[in-house]
Amino acid sequence: MTTNPPKTFLAKSYKSGLKPVWCPGCGDHNVLMGFTKAMAKLGVKPEKSVVVSGIGCSSRIPAYTKCYGFHGVHGRSLPIAAGIKLARPELSVLVFSGDGDGYSIGGNHFLHACRRNIDLTYIVMDNQVYGMTKGQPSPTTEPDWDNGMAPGGTNLRPFQPLVIALAAGANFIARGFSGDSNGTAELISKAVMHPGFSFVEILSPCVTFRPEQRAWKEMVRPAPVETTYDRGQAARRLATDDGFYTGVLFRDTRPAFEPPVVDNRIEVSDFDHEFVV
Question: Residue 264: which of 117, 91, 116, 86 has the closest Cα?
Fold first, then answer.
């Protein structure tokens, strides 16, 4: 990735003029702040960056940046981003998603994006609920969460995104907390710089439908062990942690998938003969 001196840009260099419409207190505000801080630190030109998303509260982020953006359909952000990166490998491509968009309808794409190991950064804001559609349980919701949408809870085992990402072949796995925008910025910058598919889960409380998640700020803590390159060791750690350890939890050195790029561009005039009547 080509970067400029970090002093060239400030965080505001990446913000659009649109005011976020998230609920007051939503963790996604700080994720956006962490993203802009990270890009300023890396010194990536806004026009050399692409932000892709699907559907959901978290997926509004492209509109709030000055980067190139693509607000796609539900669960399909990763294949769109993969196409962009493979066609334009010189660009920095980041994908923003939520636990519903990314792990439910987008779950299959998540698996294969990890497996393909294209040089993308996938940031998932997890609040364990469908916030934009009024509070239904999501794939990561605990089985006994009782609300009007699921009386008595779903009684379903929660999706384990970090474990799944590891098993599917992600090259970089980290967890952050939206309440720590500087820590979030640091994780995003490390993910962008790491080759291959980088996955960052950010715990981002939904204070509207899950007000009890305000307690997360007292529960998150740095992982007590160093980052590991050993997939087996990482599997044991991720399968047994309580979901609140933060930091870079796994790195791999597998080369990113980079097929040869063939320049097939043609002039519009070359099509003219096809439209002659």
Answer: 86
Instruction: List the beta bridge partners of residue 130.
Output: 136
Q: Kindly state the tokens that stand for 23.
A: 């609920």
Record the pTM.
Answer: 0.90
Nearest of 103, 122, 3 to residue 61 by alpha carbon: 122
Query: In sequence order, what are the beta bridge partners of 147?
Result: 150
Distance of CA 186 to the CA centre of its chain: 14
From first to last of its 277 residues, the chain has per-residue pLDDT tens of: 545 544 578 999 999 999 999 999 999 999 999 999 999 999 999 999 999 999 999 999 999 999 999 998 888 999 999 999 999 999 999 999 999 999 999 989 999 999 999 999 999 999 999 988 888 999 999 999 998 888 999 999 999 999 999 999 999 999 999 999 999 999 999 999 999 999 999 999 999 999 999 999 999 999 999 999 999 999 999 999 999 999 999 999 999 998 887 777 777 777 777 777 7
In order of their start, the domains of the chain are 22-275 (3.40.50.970)
Compute the Cα dihedral for 47, 53, 56, 58 and give only its sign. Answer: negative
Backbone angles phi, psi at 100, to 5 degrees: -75, -55
